[in-house]
Write a structure and sequence with these properties.
The protein has 350 residues and is α+β, with helices and mostly antiparallel strands. It has 12 helices and 14 strands. The structure holds zinc ion.
Length: 350
């Protein structure tokens, strides 16, 4: 299966010396695995934490298994639902992913990051030069795995992202041959994932909030008023002109973080913390991009809600406050949200 992709916000897949010389498959696979695990958990299945390499393939148990489907045999051999497809010690990934026809290029020439510093911030955000353009993902391997990956990519197109640095707004994309991918994804069978686990402490789609903000600017220079952008407008202007993108992520995160009284622990959980207890934030919002589907501007993203229900509802309210969106971006837009709560809800997103 070939999946033709157009980037909607810059892509970052890692590389040498803080630059990306080209798109790297490993950077895409890492993010796909992270989402696949969150989906598997959201469906009530089991996904180990690969950083602890919990799953090991047991060849003897595999031989002895009397299970009727290949994936169930793998479960008997000791592999969780994610490792069955993405591989583990002793077991190869069930699909191969190659980037062909990479027509992406860095959105500015030097490796210097763009520093976006909203008013009242001393340091701000540092955005490295990601890549924009088109490329094709060629997927080969086990049909059952490819069908699920097709469904995963369609889900990520609508609600997620691909590659690294999603928290800086990178990795939004469009699938150009959606009909082909949809035909494969429709055959995906998720029923072999047994519904046995309750909500996990690891990323689980039942603890996610997805959002999308669409708007039509009234004047072409709308973006110059976004907090933190005016002082770098000379660098941003060509991004708007050539790629129809505006790095609004810092302004939005700034508004959500500082427009609200969070207690210290919640603030660190939600927005991340620096060293020594480096912690990644739980909110992702893309840059603003022109959606070629409906010719409107859009920002989409998600939050992995904290387990503590009061904090989760405070975060849900903050992200759901359309006034904050409108005022920060200086536009009038429409906010939509998705909040899957059950395995059934998760299934409907796929
Ligand atoms: Zn595993």
């Amino acid at each position: 299966m070939d999946v033709q992709i157009t980037t909607l916000t810059p892509f970052w897949t890692g590389g040498v010396e803080g630059t990306t010389d080209r798109l790297h498959e490993s950077g895409l696979i890492g993010s796909m695995r992270w989402w696949y695990e969150a989906i598997v958990r959201g469906l009530g299945g089991e996904a180990c934490d690969p950083s602890q390499s919990k799953c090991t393939f047991d060849a003897e148990k595999y031989q002895k298994s009397s299970a009727s489907t290949p994936l169930q045999r793998l479960r008997d051999a000791g592999l969780c639902d994610a490792c069955q497809v993405f591989g583990a010690t002793g077991w190869r990934r069930r699909f191969r992913l190659t980037i062909i026809n990479d027509q992406t290029q860095p959105i500015w020439k030097d490796a210097q990051p763009l520093n976006i510093r909203p008013p009242d911030r001393t340091r701000g955000w540092f955005l490295p030069p990601g890549r924009m353009g088109t490329f094709t993902l060629r997927l080969t391997g086990d049909p059952e795995a490819i069908q699920r990956i097709a469904a995963l990519l369609l889900f990520l197109e609508q609600w997620g992202s691909l590659g690294a640095k999603p928290q800086l707004g990178y990795g939004a994309f469009r699938i150009d041959n959606r009909e082909d991918v949809l035909a494969v994804a429709k055959q995906a069978n998720w029923n072999t994932i047994s519904v046995s686990q309750s909500a996990s402490a690891d990323p689980d789609l039942r603890q996610f909030l997805f959002f999308r903000f669409d708007f039509t600017p009234r004047q072409p220079g709308w973006w110059t008023n976004v907090p933190g952008i005016s002082r770098v407008s000379i660098q941003v202007q060509p991004l708007v002109q050539h790629y129809n993108i505006v790095p609004v992520t810092p302004a939005l995160k700034n508004a959500w973080r500082f427009g609200q009284k969070w207690n210290c622990a919640d603030e660190q959980t939600i927005f991340g913390a620096a060293l020594p207890n480096r912690q990644r934030g739980r909110i992702v919002a893309t840059w603003a991009y022109l959606d070629p589907g409906n010719n409107r501007w859009c920002v989409h993203g998600w939050a992995w809600l904290p387990a503590q229900s009061q904090t989760a509802s405070m975060l849900t309210q903050t992200l759901g406050n359309a006034t904050t969106w409108n005022q920060t971006l200086n536009v009038q837009g429409t906010l939509t949200q998705q909040r899957p709560r059950t395995t059934q809800d998760v299934r409907q997103l796929l």
